[in-house]
Amino acid sequence: MLAQPPLSLYIHIPWCVKKCPYCDFNSHEFGAHEALPEERYIAALCADFDADYLLACGGDTVEKRRPIYSIFIGGGTPSLFSARAFDTLLQHIASTQRAGWLESTELEITLEANPGTLEAGRFTEFRAAGINRLSLGIQSFADAQLTRLGRIHDGAQAQRAIDSARAAGFDNFNLDLMHGLPEQSLKDALTDLESALSFEPPHLSWYQLTIEPNTVFYSKPPPLPSESILTSVQDAGHALLSARGLEQYEVSAYARSSSLQSRHNFNYWQFGDYLGIGAGAHGKISLADGSQPLRTRKQRQPDHYLRAATQPQANGRTSRYTAEAMPIPSDEIAIEYLLNTLRTRRGFSPAHFEARTGTAFSVIAKRVEYLRSQGLLCDSPSADGWVTTTERGFRYLNNVLEEFI
Q1: Going from the N-terminus, what domains does the chain have, and what CATH number goes with each?
Q2: What percent of the chain lies above the pLDDT cut of 90?
Q3: Mutual orientation of helices 362-373 and 330-341 as an angle, nearest 10°?
């Protein structure tokens, strides 16, 4: 029987001003003269949450309700919505939780925001609404690269947004920064990283640009750096981040302390549960009866999602906004667990593996020992009884994961 892990909440806002050529997320441009259907969408999110939350709890009695561990509002560009809209949504969610939950200092509520001046001016209002962490989509401080990436801000606006976030009271924020950009040299990449580090960010997501299907860059690939340059950037960048006090705790995530690690993302990587509400959002829900956890996916197109609000409620196991809700096959649960946990420096323990997958550790024990013998896995130096990758194993993580597939 599977134990119910911590339950997070992902909220998707699907609109953006301009679709970036590298973006494969469910984001949709809206015209300059169009009004976002903010009020209708927030009402739909509330109804969507209610249905999924009761499903995750296995009923509607207070005793069975599971606490929401963290909230992440992503997109698209969520910061295009007003603080009043998010206040309405958060107050609705708070009504299902214990008293004072929204004001808890332990609760992490993250909002993705782009560095445009309009959004930056709203930071104080977002903070007052209960959002206590920002994830700023900087991507680069170089104007030429920002133009190539299709971003609507420049380097100066990125810097002002960071200053505005701090002035608004956000002492916990993340900067998203890419490397491996078109024709980017080692010097260029490190200059970008130095610019980010000059702001002493509590958290940094530093990741390589990848070309995904169904994007403009996929159909018209830009000239990317060579593999040797990419390797040099990763090695030099990791050394620089470590020297500046940012500890890598996941493949592309760095934090100044364990308390500043992303609680929301870490729950993903530890194979926790998460509700996914909003157009195109995905979720993973462990059911109260101990049966196979569900993968859920919501209606992808915003107009279809909003139209679902007028439809009859679904069958009790899904909301009217759900496009798909399928049990995760038992033979995929263990693999999915390992794909997530081995992305982190923490790794996994046999007990944690069994609790989150419902599978005996003996099923993978021989492969774990083989990877130990190859110098790719080892005992964690920071957590007794846990297994993690060696430095070599972390560098060749895909090879490690292939052993379990």
Answers
A1: 7-268 (3.20.20.70), 330-402 (1.10.10.10)
A2: 83
A3: 40
